[in-house]
UniProtKB/TrEMBL annotation:
Residue ranges of every copy of the FHA domain listed in the record: 38-87
Name of the protein in question: Response regulator of zinc sigma-54-dependent two-component system
Domain of life, per lineage: Bacteria
Natural source organism: Sandaracinus amylolyticus
CDD domains (UniProt xref): AAA, FHA
Length: 442
């Protein structure tokens, strides 16, 4: 049988766009979207730099997409208005007027098209995607991975930020050196410095022996700083210094130690907006965002959903293709937890034989594996570590969902009732894509 392999296009041509200031202090200033993204604000790194004092440093961004032009406010102080309406995100019609502070800007379609590089592949490392949005990301990753450039990955929870970091490392000359992850939101603020840079014995109570920090542990390889937006403000200058000098000082020691690390950082926040709000230092933001990578949410790339469902299905050894009605039912849903939530839904439905129940009305925290229900014997066919992980996930999920239902959705209440703290419950909820309910929490 002859297989016809369709070659994917290596670039995308989009209609061009010009932003022109039509009133205000910068009247006549213009910018053309050359890369597909245009940033507007008072800071010098914007494509359109405005001198209007009521404009934030990074005010809004315009992105050219396949069938639309999108505008996103970047957490500005005075807001972004499209045709007189204050927006967080909006689709721009040709000729729309965007107002920021005392400045009005018109978005004008132009003849000269914009060419966006696309990967000809539908995967990068463990990340899959056939959509133009993902192939746009893959093309960028293919280009930057072999270098030592610092990469900042931004995207909602479950969009694959950690997979991107791993894939960058694997595609770099550092691949056979360590890949070390540090989650900046996972430890108490007072311990972050010693986790990053290490400490010497006696540096603080509890420091019973010398300890390496993650910078030194990643020497020669890649350091992945996850949830960088959670890094306490007072530590940000220290991280900046380490990134600039490639030297670190262990807590309690005067000596500087040289480190050779490539840094990849990630956050679910829009870091430019955090800068506007004064929660993140601008100089550190610049140092990290040498190559910014935005991972689109799953709702912006619906065409990836069937391929992802098939992939997760096949990983469970359930045959080559999932039943079409199963795909159709899942494809029609919204996925606020993105790919992670989709993966969990496929695995849960397949392993617990719950395909039929998908789409049925659910209690706030539906129990996926009540203690009395036998698990699917298919778990026994998985490799040992995967089977153990899967059982742990099913157990933890069912356990937490029960505790949350009993507490009426209160995370603190659930944490108290099971003898742990709220932070830990929140981390597990995030890991297993268990959604917080609307019930108020402290
Ligand atoms: N493009 C993708 N292709 C295949 N699997 C994916 C993709 N994106 C995410 N996943 C799946 O979703 C899971 C979650 O991805 P990951 O942990 O990288 O997300 P994240 O953006 O770092 O989330 P968080 O912000 O919550 O930490 C992965 O383990 C993987 O199973």
């Amino acid at each position: 049988m002859t297989q016809i392999v369709e070659r994917l296009a290596a670039k995308l041509e989009l209609p061009g766009l010009r932003l022109s200031v039509v009133s205000g202090a910068d009247l006549g200033k213009e910018a053309v979207a050359e890369s597909g993204v245009l940033r507007v604000g008072a800071a010098r790194d914007n494509d359109l730099v405005l001198s209007d004092p009521s404009v934030s440093r990074r005010h809004f961004q315009v992105t050219l997409r396949q069938h639309e032009v999108r505008v996103d406010d970047l957490g500005s102080t005075n807001g972004t208005f499209v045709q007189g309406v204050r927006i967080l995100s909006a689709i721009l019609a040709p000729g729309s007027l965007v107002q920021v502070g005392n400045t009005a800007i018109r978005a004008i379609p132009i003849e000269q098209p914009v060419h966006i590089a696309l990967s000809e592949k539908t995967r990068f490392g463990a990340l899959l995607g056939t959509s133009v949005e993902m192939r746009r990301v893959f093309a960028l990753l293919e280009r930057v991975s072999p270098s030592d450039a610092t990469v900042l990955i931004q995207g909602e929870t479950g969009t694959g930020k950690e997979l991107v970091a791993e894939a960058i490392h694997a595609a770099s000359p550092r691949a056979d050196q360590p890949f070390v992850t540090f989650d900046c939101g996972s430890v108490a603020p007072s311990l972050v410095e010693s986790e990053l840079f290490g400490h010497v014995r006696g540096a603080f109570s509890g420091a019973v022996r010398d300890r390496l920090g993650v910078f030194e542990a990643a020497h020669g390889g890649t350091l992945f700083l996850d949830e960088i937006g959670e890094l306490p403000l007072d530590l940000q200058p220290k991280l900046l210094r380490a990134l600039e000098s490639r030297q670190v000082q262990r807590v309690g020691e005067n000596r500087w130690r040289s480190v050779d690390v490539r840094v990849v950082a990630a956050t679910h926040r829009e870091l430019a907006a955090e800068v506007n709000r004064g929660r993140f230092r601008e100089d550190l933001y610049f140092r990290l965002a040498v190559v910014p990578v935005h991972l689109p949410p799953l709702r912006a790339r619906g065409e990836d959903v069937p391929m992802l469902i098939a992939h997760f299905w096949q990983r469970l050894g359930r045959g080559a293709q999932p039943p079409p009605e199963f795909v159709a039912r899942l494809a029609s849903r919204a996925w606020p937890g993105n790919v992670r939530e989709l993966r969990n839904a496929v695995e849960r439905a397949a392993l617990l034989g719950a395909v039929e129940s998908l789409g049925a009305p659910k209690p706030i925290y539906p129990s996926s594996a009540p203690a009395s229900s036998p698990f699917d014997p298919a778990i026994l066919d998985l490799p040992l570590t995967e089977a153990q992980e899967k059982m742990e996930e099913l157990f933890t999920r069912a356990y937490l969902e029960r505790a949350l239902t009993k507490s009426g959705g209160s995370v603190s209440g659930a944490a108290r009732s099971i003898g742990t703290n709220r932070r830990y419950v929140q981390r597990l909820m995030k890991r297993y894509a268990i959604k917080a309910s609307d019930v108020d929490d402290e």
